[in-house]
Q: What sequence folds into this?
């Protein structure tokens, strides 16, 4: 099925290219003969900007208007850009819905090139080289200039990603303003948290299907905001199992007693199996004996933005932590 979709997309792209060729070249009326003023005839259109990326070099429109970014909806919105498509895929980002509105959805896991073509982007940005593999980069490039982020940039450095997007979209000033506002918010939150909990520890676990995953740091989806930005003390189990290059670890029910943490954040993947597993954990005697549970310091948080590296998601994580820990 996927191959047939891709073949159809290639055919559509070829037809599209022929149409553009037929409409161009010598058919544009002379500015003077069409009654256009000499002032308009002498207007200079800003030249495209050259950019190098992991797949080569491209020419980006000086001021792109319709931008399709795979798994970059959050970042584009943070810059004040309405994306040309929605690319949440199977991991629905409900927190973005009020901002995205009713857009064509393109699943990064199974690209619908026909839908992407119909959205008429003038710039395509891929958050990961994976999406450009198996010859798909050529298909993207036939639709619009396509920029590909380096492996890991999008996941591990939202500030750097936002700055690059700012350069690509002529929104560098907006990128710096967002980062400045976030850093000011974090500095204020850090002071409030220190006054409220001092050196108390916190950690986040994620339940997905039958798996229990402990998140650490100093990077990762949660670690960067909890430990790097907000300066919360990581517990010993996090430093032992989920610190450094691999900032998460799968744990078993037998490991639950080792969660000697003052505050526990928990998030559950939104499917029946994961919800059932969470119910099993919460009902267990091992869980009920934990310090955070006995002291009423377990905090449920939303999967859609806690498991997302976007700047708007990070902003919402800060709000969650303040709401939970600053009484």
A:
């Amino acid at each position: 099925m996927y191959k047939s979709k891709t073949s159809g997309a290639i055919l559509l792209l070829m037809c599209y290219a022929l149409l553009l060729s037929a409409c161009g070249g010598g058919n544009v009326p002379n500015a003077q003969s069409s009654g256009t003023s000499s002032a308009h005839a002498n207007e200079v259109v800003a030249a495209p900007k050259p950019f190098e990326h992991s797949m080569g070099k491209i020419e980006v429109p000086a001021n792109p208007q319709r931008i399709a970014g795979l798994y970059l909806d959050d970042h584009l919105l943070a810059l004040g850009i309405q994306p040309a498509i929605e690319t949440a895929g199977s991991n629905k980002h409900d927190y973005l819905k009020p901002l995205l509105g009713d857009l064509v959805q393109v699943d990064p896991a199974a690209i619908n090139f026909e839908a992407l073509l119909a959205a008429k982007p003038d710039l395509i940005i891929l958050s990961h080289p994976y999406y450009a593999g198996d010859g798909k980069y050529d298909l993207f490039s036939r639709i619009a200039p396509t920029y590909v982020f380096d492996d890991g940039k999008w996941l591990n450095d939202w500030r750097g990603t936002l700055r690059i997007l700012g350069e690509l979209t002529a929104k560098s000033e907006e990128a710096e303003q967002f980062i400045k506002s976030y850093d000011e918010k974090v500095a204020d939150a850090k002071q409030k948290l220190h006054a409220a909990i001092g050196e108390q520890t916190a950690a986040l676990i994620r339940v997905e299907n039958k798996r229990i995953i402990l998140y650490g740091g100093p990077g990762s989806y949660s670690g960067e905001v909890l430990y790097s930005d907000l300066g919360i003390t990581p517990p010993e189990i996090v430093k032992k199992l989920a610190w450094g290059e691999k900032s998460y670890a799968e744990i078993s029910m037998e490991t639950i007693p080792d969660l000697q943490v003052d505050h526990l954040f928990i998030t559950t993947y939104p499917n029946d199996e994961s919800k059932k597993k969470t119910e099993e954990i919460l009902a267990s005697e091992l869980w009920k004996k934990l310090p955070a549970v006995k002291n009423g310091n377990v905090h449920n948080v939303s999967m859609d933005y806690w498991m997302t590296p976007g700047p708007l998601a990070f902003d919402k994580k800060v709000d969650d932590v303040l709401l939970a820990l600053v009484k």
